[in-house]
Every structure is written in C-alpha cells, then in structure tokens.
Design a protein that fits this description.
The protein is mainly α and about 300 residues long. It has helices at about 5-30, 35-55, 60-65, 65-90, 95-105, 105-120, 125-140, 150-160, 160-185, 190-210, 220-245, 250-255, 260-270, 275-295. The chain has one domain (about 5-295). It is globular, with a radius of gyration of 18 Å.
C-alpha cells in the first residue's frame, strides 16, 4: 500500500470513529455535562498524544513545522472544537442538538467547495447538485427523530446562537482540512496532539466559568476511554494524515456518510428505532457523495 492509499484508508477510519462517537458522546454528556466531558476527552487525548511525541523524540520535529500550520490550523482546530461543544451545550433540548448537528454536517460539502480556491481544484457544475443531494440526505435521515422544517425554523427564531456556533464550526473544519493539506502536506506528522491539548484547555476554562454537575459510573469511564482513544487520538491523527497525503477529495466525499453512520450506531446504542427515512436519506447521501467525488479533479 503506497503512502496516498494509506492516508486515504486512515481518513475513512477517522470517519468511522467519528460516526460512532455521537452515541457515546451523547450518553457521556448526560452524566458529566458537555463542557466537562469535552475537557476531559481532549485533555486526556492531548496529554497522552504529547507524551508519546516526547518519548518517541518527535516533539521537536512537530515544533519545526511551519508557523502558518501550527498557529493557523491550530486556531481553526480549537475554534471548531470549542464552537461545536458550546453549541451542543447551549442547545435547548435533544431535538435542537440534532438540528445543530445538521448545521455542523455542512462541513463535508464546504470542504470540497473551499478546496477549489485553496487547493486550486477544478470542479464541474455537478458539484452543486451533489452537495445539495448530500445535505438533503442528512436532513431526511435525521427527520426520523421527529425533525421537521417548521420545527427547525421555529427553534431557529427562538434560539439562534447554537446554529451560528455550529456553522462557525463547519466552516472552521472545512478550512482546517484544506489548509492542512496546503501548509503541512510534506510533513511526516502533524501537530494534532498540540491541537487536542489546546482544545482541552479551552474547554476546561469554559468549564470553570460554567460549572456542571457530574455523575461518574463504570459506563461513563468506558465511554470516556473510547472517546479519548478512538474518537480523538486516532480519528484526528488519521484525518490529519488523510488531508496531508491521502485522496482528500474522496475522503471528503465519503464524509457525507458520517451522519448516517451516527444515526445507525446511535439507534442501536441509544435504543432508537430507525425508520424508512434513514434508508432514503442513505441513498441520497451515497448519490451525493459519488456526484461530489466525480465533480472535482484530484490533481495528485
């Protein structure tokens, strides 16, 4: 397997880990609180990852990466994490959390669109309907939980800040993915450990400002361990590698499947029965993903 193929596989694994994280995160935040669980996850992941860099002697190599990547992509990473967690934390209820998640899942299409000016990709006109199909699939798949356009608009009018924060998160992650490839493509490894640690410190600061009640159980400990190791350390490291050396267009297109994967795993883990909406949404997302993949030329 060559370097590009390996990076692509890592990107796909990152999507799988993120898809499984929604159910675990929702369950964990109900016990520990949104900011508390987020700060623990990213502080643990960042600390363990940075410790590995020190032991392996790679820390100095990471610190020698371009300042544009370290500070530019680092800031985008932290803002993405903080915005998304605060959006989830300030949502008025579970239904609005799902709506906020839908706004955040604009990032796959935004990644492809932003790749045109940043990475100088060439796109066909079919990119627009492909993005629309993918987003429509996300909406339809999530509608099984009681989502409706009327309810969405009503919630938007009464509590708009979570939606704005989720949109900020989507834009930041799309920019991060493209700028990582532009500024650190040739690097042997990225600075994800530092970004994870910085995100944990920011969330910890917010946790101090906004205290939350916590309830530790054996289940919450296992969920925290899974989210730290797989959904944070491995997922973000794999995504970083995919954006730097893999087929970024293919991985970004397949990322449309992440919300649907979240629905399937969430249905099983949280005991929510999927409806016919899921399968229609899945079909639209797959068609949209293929359309987007065929709409942008991968130059390298």
């Amino acid at each position: 397997m060559n370097e590009k193929s390996r990076g692509t596989v890592q990107g796909i694994l990152a999507l799988i880990f993120w898809g499984s994280s929604i159910a675990f995160t929702r369950s964990l935040t109900e016990k520990l609180g949104t900011l508390t669980s987020g700060s623990y996850i990213f502080l643990l992941a960042g600390s363990l990852f940075c410790a590995y860099l020190v032991v392996s002697g790679r820390l100095q190599r990471v610190l020698r990466l371009s300042r544009a990547y370290l500070f530019g992509c680092g800031a985008l990473f932290v803002v993405y994490i903080a915005s998304l967690y605060v959006a989830i934390g300030t949502a008025t209820g579970r239904l609005q959390v799902l709506e906020v998640g839908l706004v955040n899942y604009l990032w796959p299409s935004l990644t492809l669109v932003i790749a045109i000016p940043i990475l100088r990709r060439k796109a066909r006109f079919t990119l627009i309907p492909g993005c629309l199909l993918g987003f429509s699939g996300v909406l339809i798949a999530s509608a099984q939980f009681g989502e409706s356009w009327t309810t969405f608009v009503g919630n938007l009018g009464s509590s708009w800040s979570p939606y704005i924060l989720a949109l900020v998160a989507a834009v930041c992650w799309a920019l991060y993915s493209n700028l990582t490839r532009r500024w650190a493509r040739e690097a042997e490894s990225g600075a994800v450990p530092l970004f994870l640690l910085a995100s944990g410190l920011v969330l910890l600061g917010l946790r101090v400002l906004y205290p939350e009640r916590t309830e530790w159980t054996s289940q919450s400990i296992l969920e925290l361990a899974y989210l730290t190791l797989f959904s944070s350390i491995l997922a973000y490291a794999f995504w970083d590698a995919a954006m730097r050396r893999g087929n970024a267009t293919l991985v970004a297109s397949l990322s449309y499947l992440t919300p649907l994967l979240s629905v399937v795993i969430g249905s099983m883990y949280l005991g929510v029965g999927p409806g016919w909406n899921l399968w229609i949404g899945c079909l639209l997302v797959i068609v949209g993903s293929v359309t987007c993949q065929l709409s942008i030329k991968e130059d390298d």
